[in-house]
């Protein structure tokens, strides 16, 4: 399992992320393979940087 810290209280398993899309300048939509959508108030650049940098095996 690879967890990505998206926000202070939001960790997602990167294996199950299907899409990451910008939703304005300060928000991002993250679609999971099961269809669930998370919309953290975090810029897309920060989400992508964290996904690429902070992915760790658990």
Task: Please explain how this structure is put together.
This protein has 1 helix and 6 strands; from the N terminus they run βββββαβ. The mean pLDDT is 85. The chain has 58 residues and is an alpha+beta fold. The relative contact order is 0.28. 17% of the residues lie in helices and 43% in strands. A 3-stranded antiparallel β-sheet has the order 2-1-6, covered by helices on one side. Strands 3-4-5 form a 3-stranded antiparallel β-sheet, with helices on one face. The longest helix is centred in the last third of the chain and has 10 residues, at 44-53.
Would you kindly provide a brief summary of this structure?
Helices cover 17% and strands 43% of the residues. It has 58 residues and is an alpha+beta fold. A 3-stranded antiparallel β-sheet has the order 2-1-6, with helices on one face. Strands 3-4-5 form a 3-stranded antiparallel β-sheet, covered by helices on one side.
SSE series: EEEEEHE
Cα-based radius of gyration, to the nearest Å? 10 Å
Runs in which pLDDT lies below 50 for 5 or more consecutive residues are: none
Task: Assess the beta-strand content as a share of residues.
Answer: 35-45%
Secondary-structure content class: alpha+beta
Q: Characterize the overall form.
A: globular
* Widest beta sheet: strand line-up: 2-1-6
Helix content: 10-25%
Tally of helical segments: 1
Instruction: Report mean pLDDT, rounded to a whole number.
Output: 85
The biggest beta sheet reads:
3 strands, antiparallel
Cα end-to-end separation: 5 Å
Strand count: 6
């Amino acid at each position: 399992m690879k967890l990505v810290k998206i926000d202070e209280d939001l960790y997602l398993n990167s294996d199950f992320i299907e899409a990451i899309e910008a939703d304005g300048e300060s928000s991002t939509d993250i679609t999971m393979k099961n269809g669930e959508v998370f919309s953290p108030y975090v810029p897309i650049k920060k989400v992508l940087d964290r996904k690429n940098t902070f992915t760790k095996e658990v």
